[in-house]
Amino acid sequence: MKVAVAGCCHGALEKMYETLELLQRRHNVRPDLLLCCGDFQAVRNEADLRCMAVPAKYRHMESFYRYYSGEKKAPVLTVFIGGNHEASNHLQELPYGGWVAPNIYYLGYAGVVRFRGVRIGGISGIFKSHDYRKGHFECPPYNQQTIRSAYHVRNIEVFKLKQLKRPIDIFMSHDWPRSIYHYGNKQQLLKMKSFFRQEVESNTLGSPAASELLHHLKPTYWFSAHLHVKFAAFMQHQANSKEELPKATKFLALDKCLPHRDFLQIVDIEHDPTAGDSLEYDAEWIAVLKATNSLVNVTQSSWNMPENNGLHARWDYSVTEEAIKEVLEELNHNLQIPCNFTLTAACYDPSKPQKHMQPVHTINPQTTEFCAQFGLTDINARIQQAKEEGSVRVDYEEDEEEEMDSTGSTEEPSDYNTDNSGLSSINPDEILLDEEGGDEDLSTCSVDPSPDHPPDFSASFSDIRIMPDSMVVSSDDAMDSTNEELERSGESKQVEEKSLNERPLKRVGGNENGNSGIKIKRRNQAIYAAEDEDK
């Protein structure tokens, strides 16, 4: 079957679907499924806009609300993960996944589903070490810290995914797995994005959590977005035993959704021709959710997942064939995900704008039904209960116009040494928040295709095994990258350790008297300076 893969959507659903229709008209290519790798921006109303971590002047309604209201319907089944610019209050209603609109499905904090026999997994958000070991404690209305931490990856989601034993065909993450750039045409990548050089050379670009999942799951395909550049790589995995067959992952990062940008890729995926056209639950994933349900945490307290270190009575939560069989029997062998989309918020009305609409903490009936069916903890209900009992402290603040840095954490260090899942250098192609990379002027994403300037589909009609010439991974390039890394490994360790000890995590802007003001990273100083000039 043909699968269309998109990078950062930024709310431009009409743009994506119009592009797919153009594909069909001009080239008779009709995808059976659309995957979006984050920054989907399922914004229903003005309250949702207030829950999106971008500067206020970049908050635009875009077109999702038309699909939410039923005015329009997605012409192709769409499955997406969350990124770092989302209506977090909306996605938070569906921690285990669910329909955000008819024919548009969100995978949740982490999830696995099946379509036509193809197993599709994903993890939402981006990695930040200071929140990695916390529970999902955030709820709207968010403050200037929780509006960001709400989309930070948590160790429990990684732990759940690592319990999977059956093969994964497709996996999605928003930020790239760390080190994946060493398995592609790294020189070409740095030629296009020279400001990546520092992170690439110090091996700090990307998510260490995603890298851990990549090595564990070894999916056939891995798709990412976030860094707004198209990049292909090929990773040959090492077998864990003599009995294990060699596995390889084809990695592809997609560009953002803009006119004249190659933001879509069509991939031919082997599928089960006898399977139906409905999106289905994955029995092993449901069994894993049931097995790990006792580990659910809705507090800010940091904690580690169980491991074989003598401190835990149980550390292996992978499931048996018997447990998977029990799930199938519970569902009467009918794995079809019910089309139970429900409106849970007022929809934006252009004729009656409500600029002061405030977000509220909502428990979605889809989640209630899902948890009741499988005996799982409703995370939002638990948060609400904890708030009522006063066991969770939640600080509410008024929405602010300007973005500020998230407060650093003083807890124990995370499982990983570094915290650079985004960029620490100025990216001239983006407008960045202080803490995460990847913001841009969303208003530019709503431009309709022009007959005079159609989108470029030059590299969009083949399996990613047939890559654009500029991104071909040759054996020489891969060998050069490997040798280069081996020769430099000792030096890199010393440099990284030195940088961790000596380099401040945040650069603080202050006046000439030494009084510090708003914390601004180096990559944002030019942006804020330009804003000051505008004023």
From TrEMBL:
Gene Ontology CC, one term: nucleus
Region (Disordered): 387-524
Alphabetized SMART domains for the sequence: DBR1
Bias type Acidic residues, positions: 396-405, 431-442
Composition bias, Polar residues: 415-427
Entry keyword annotation includes Oxidoreductase: no
Domain of life from the UniProt record: Eukaryota
InterPro entries per the UniProt record, alphabetical: Calcineurin-like_PHP, DBR1_C, Dbr1_N, Metallo-depent_PP-like
Subcellular location: Nucleus
UniProt domain Lariat debranching enzyme C-terminal: residue ranges: 235-380
UniProt keyword Mitochondrion present: no
Cofactor(s) needed by this chain: Fe(2+); Zn(2+); Mn(2+)
SUPFAM superfamilies: Metallo-dependent phosphatases (SSF56300)
PANTHER family: LARIAT DEBRANCHING ENZYME (PTHR12849:SF0), RNA LARIAT DEBRANCHING ENZYME (PTHR12849)
Family of the protein in this entry: Belongs to the lariat debranching enzyme family.
Protein name: DBR1 enzyme
Taxonomic lineage of the native organism: Eukaryota, Metazoa, Chordata, Craniata, Vertebrata
